[in-house]
Amino acid sequence: MILMTIFQVKNKLRKAFLGRTLTGFILKNRFQKKLPIVSAGGVITAILLGTITSAKAAEISFSPGDGVPPVVVSPPFGELASGGEVGTAFINKGVDFSFGGREGIFNDPPLAFGGVNSSNNVDLISPVDGRIVLPGTLNNGLTSFLSIEAGASNPGQLLLEVFDAGGALLSSVANNLPLGPNGRTTLTIDRGGIFDIASFKVSTPVNDAFGVNFIKLETPMAADSQSVPEPSTILSLLTVGAIGVALRCKRQQQEKETAKV
């Protein structure tokens, strides 16, 4: 005769509970990171748990001196130098400055991106804008996080706007603390893991001279690779999947009871 301790009996009962109830089934498989494919009324649903994360991907950061090829520096408030248009020199960093207006680089110091006006001057008033691309290409990209250091301006005098792929405004923020690596105010927009920022613009509503000294963004992803479902879709999948699991468990129980008769 094999005698079991109270602990062993409780452990067996716990395992039986986990294997035969819907709650136990979900809890048990949650630690395995996924639930199996189940069928309910002909509907096949695969539910994955633990695949949506708020952790940031790798970030890309750069300064005006990081262009490839290097961009010729223009005088502040002066004419754009030959070879001084930024254009596509930073696509390896995920930003295409040939989008929208034109930009040059001037020495503040430190070096800064500056907008170019219709007279071909780096006037330090015109907006600085760019399009998000897949690093090293001109293919449209999306990011979920963008932080820009710009100045020298007092808080509230600069504006960062971000737009989706259709050009619709997603969010905007004024410059403020904390200070960036060059001691200038920053403008940061974090979309909480939603990759929908396709372009951006930094401007000065009060016509205060400024330059962009530093840019940091979450590594862009392809514009057509966003696959995380809406919350309502996730809820529907969970509901259908739970029904399928419950029906399967009930059917297995009935089969066992029938077999005993």
Your description of this structure?
Helix 1 packs across helix 2. The chain is α+β, with helices and mostly antiparallel strands and 261 residues long. Strands 3-15-9-13-12 form a 5-stranded antiparallel sheet, with no helix packed on it. It has a 5-stranded antiparallel sheet with strand order 4-7-14-10-11, with no helix packed on it. Strands 1-2 form a two-stranded antiparallel sheet. The model is unreliable at 16-54 (pLDDT under 50). The longest helix is centred in the C-terminal third of the chain and has 30 residues, at 231-260. It is 21% helix and 28% strand.
Total strand segments: 16
The main pleated sheet reads as:
5 strands, antiparallel
In order across it, which strands form the biggest sheet? 3-15-9-13-12
Helix/strand order: HHEEEEEEEEEEEEEEEEH
Average pLDDT number: 80
Query: Helical percent range?
Result: 10-25%
Low-confidence stretches: 16-54
Distance between the termini: 28 Å
What is shown here, in short?
This protein has 261 residues and is α+β, with helices and mostly antiparallel strands. 21% of the residues lie in helices and 28% in strands.
Architecture blueprint of SSEs:
Blueprint: H1 6-20, H2 22-30, E1 38-40, E2 43-45, E3 59-62, E4 95-96, E5 102-107, E6 111-116, E7 128-132, E8 141-142, E9 145-151, E10 159-163, E11 169-174, E12 176-179, E13 185-190, E14 199-203, E15 211-218, E16 221-222, H3 231-260
Antiparallel strand pairs: 1-2, 3-15, 4-7, 5-6, 7-14, 8-16, 9-13, 9-15, 10-11, 10-14, 12-13
Helix pairs in contact: 1-2
